[in-house]
Design goal:
Helix 7 links the parallel strand 11 and strand 12. Helix content is about 35%, strand content about 20%. The protein is an alpha/beta fold. It has nine helices and twelve strands. The protein is globular, with a radius of gyration of 19 Å.
């Protein structure tokens, strides 16, 4: 008889997370009837205690804000990908008891872009400068041959993005948020800001824009994504990213060679439609 295995997503707030829908769908499709996946409201202060109490039935954790950096001191090993942006969104509990941290957001961004036909670009723009922006920059480091312009609200944020650029070997240029509509001249625009932040920019979308990767998935479409689509631009959405990074998490936590991408996406779309 096999031992039931557990996994979960942690964060604060966490009630909105679609991760349980995606992972449970994968388990059902893969016939992993003795696997469960839950969500827990955990902040930075509570994280060490939560992790210390996990027993050997646990296979892994998914981490969302504000825990992606807070988890690092609690791990035995961190992947090069996660180290590059100092952000872990995936923890795998290995058979020897060690805790391994990885970042599936970065390859998830690349997979989502590739699925929409974007494999290379000669320049790009990023709206925002938070943790997701640094992961986007790390992904762009692998496919962008030219400069990346980050549109930010403060000089402190601008300095952070330039520092990430130096660390990731990307030619990062910064511009004031008041000029964010200029981002739309780039062939690839990555919007990493909270819900509502880019709504005022929707009217500035030009005719025949390039590709917009908007990392939000609820509400969807955002005003910016809707305007972009109306003008014939290519759209990559937050659900695309969520599904692709979850596929990689399922594969790492369960050891299966290929997670059921199509079924996971369909489950995510259905769950969003029901909200």
């Amino acid at each position: 008889m096999t031992t039931p295995r557990r996994a979960a997503v942690l964060g604060s707030p966490i009630a909105h997370s679609l991760s349980p829908v995606l992972h449970r769908t994968a388990y059902a499709e893969l016939g992993l009837d003795d696997w469960s996946y839950d969500r827990f409201e955990v902040d930075e202060a509570a994280l060490p205690g939560f992790v210390s109490e996990l027993d050997d039935s646990w296979a892994g954790l998914s981490l969302t804000m504000p825990l992606k950096r807070a988890i690092i001191p609690l791990l035995d090993e961190v992947s090069e990908t996660a180290s590059s942006v100092e952000a872990v969104n995936t923890v795998v509990f290995r058979a020897d008891g060690t805790r391994y941290g990885d970042n599936t957001d970065i390859p998830g961004i690349l997979a989502a872009l590739r699925e929409r036909g974007v494999e290379k670009t000669d320049s790009a723009a990023i709206l925002g400068a938070g943790a997701t922006a640094s992961s986007a920059l790390a992904a762009l480091a692998r496919i962008c041959s030219g400069p990346v312009t980050a549109y930010v609200r403060s000089e402190a944020r601008a300095a952070e993005m330039r520092a990430w650029g130096e660390r990731l070997a990307v030619d990062v240029r910064t511009a004031d948020w008041d000029d964010a509509a200029r981002a739309f001249d780039a062939p690839l625009v990555v919007a990493t800001t909270p819900a509502g932040t880019t709504d005022a920019l929707a009217a500035a979308v030009p005719d025949a824009p390039g590709t917009l990767f908007d990392v939000l998935y609820d509400p969807w479409p955002t005003a910016l994504a809707a305007a972009w689509s109306d003008r014939g631009g290519r759209i990559v959405g937050g659900l695309d990213l969520l599904v692709h990074q979850a596929v990689l998490q399922v594969e790492q936590m369960t050891g299966v060679p290929e997670a059921p991408l199509a079924a996971m996406r369909a489950a995510g779309e259905s769950a969003l439609a029901a909200r």
